[in-house]
Amino acid sequence: MLDPVERARYEATLDSGDRRRFLLGCSMIRIGLGDRLGMPPGDVPLKRVCPRCGGPHGKVVLDLPATSPDTDLRFSVTHSGDTVGVAFGQGAEVGLDVEETGRMRNLEVLASRVLSETERADLFGRPPAERPQAFLRYWTRKEAVLKSWGTGLHVPLHRLEVSAPERDPEVLGWPDQPDLPRDLRLIDTLVGGLHPATVCLSGSEDVMLLERDAGPVLRQRVESEKRAVA
């Protein structure tokens, strides 16, 4: 199912858990897009494009002819711990991030790297028990923006400022990216009712967020392929 670039990355990943999560994310992307495009998952044409230099690395996008009606399909993959998620959208750039709860270490160090001065003041002004979940909400909002914009995590997150966790999610400022679209929208959710996740989309169209458990879909696909081989 994997293309040569994906297979090379899979084989170069030493940690078994990381390999499993990478394979699961690729499978979810290819199965979802394959169902939408009406083609086998392994035939879904993908390419890597860096928004900064245009090189063949960075954000993964569909590689369809310009005449295809599905050239505006977009997707984003994320994983944290044992949780893997993929967001699909059409007509808008999309970014997804999820962070599992209960995995945080050294909150002070993380906050100094990820949060702006205003955000840190808000975080550490909260009762200690509330801080981990509030930090994760800040984090998912920021990473979702980066994934939508395609910049990767090499940019300083503390320069991107978002609204406080209990407020409507929005980007308040990002001086390093003056070309950032003005129509970015953030949608918060909880995966499994527990793990904070955020989807970032660009565009002015109305958005409906539909959540599905990929487990049954993947199991059904595996069983179908087993029957086909038999």
Q: Can you describe this structure?
A:
- The mean pLDDT is 87.
- It is built from 6 helices and 9 strands.
- The chain is 36% helix and 21% strand.
- The longest helix is centred in the N-terminal third of the chain and has 22 residues.
- The chain has 230 residues and is α+β, with helices and mostly antiparallel strands.
- The two termini are 18 Å apart.
State the gist of this model.
This protein has 230 residues and is α+β, with helices and mostly antiparallel strands. It contains six helices and nine strands; from the N terminus they run H-H-E-E-E-E-E-H-H-H-E-E-E-E-H.
- Write the H/E string, N to C: HHEEEEEHHHEEEEH
Q: Please, what is the oligomeric state?
A: single chain
Please tell me what the overall shape is.
globular
In CATH, the topology is named Ribosomal Protein L22, Chain A
Roughly what is the average pLDDT, rounded to an integer? 87
- Give the strand order of the largest sheet, numbering strands 1, 2, ... along the chain: 5-9-8
Detail the poorly predicted runs. none
- What is the name of the CATH superfamily? 4'-phosphopantetheinyl transferase domain
Measured as a percent range, the helix fraction is 25-40%
| Largest sheet features | 3 strands, antiparallel
Radius of gyration: 18 Å
Distance between the termini: 18 Å
Alpha plus pi helix count: 6
Q: What is the CATH C-level name?
A: Alpha Beta
Class inferred from helices and paired strands: alpha+beta
Number of domains: 1
Question: What is the level-2 CATH architecture name?
Answer: Alpha-Beta Complex
